[in-house]
Amino acid sequence: MKFLELNKKRHAIKTFNDKPVDYEDLRTAIEIATLAPSANNIQPWKFVVVQDKKAELAKDLPLANKRQVEQAQYVVALFSDTDLALRSRKIARIGVKSLPDDLIGYYMETLPPRFASFNDVQTGEYLAINAGIVAMNLVLALTDQKIASNIILGFDKSATNAILNIDPRFRPELLITVGYSDDKPDPSYRLPVDEVIERR
Question: Edge to edge, what strands does the sheet with 45-50 contain?
Answer without folding.
Answer: 45-50, 74-81, 170-179, 148-152
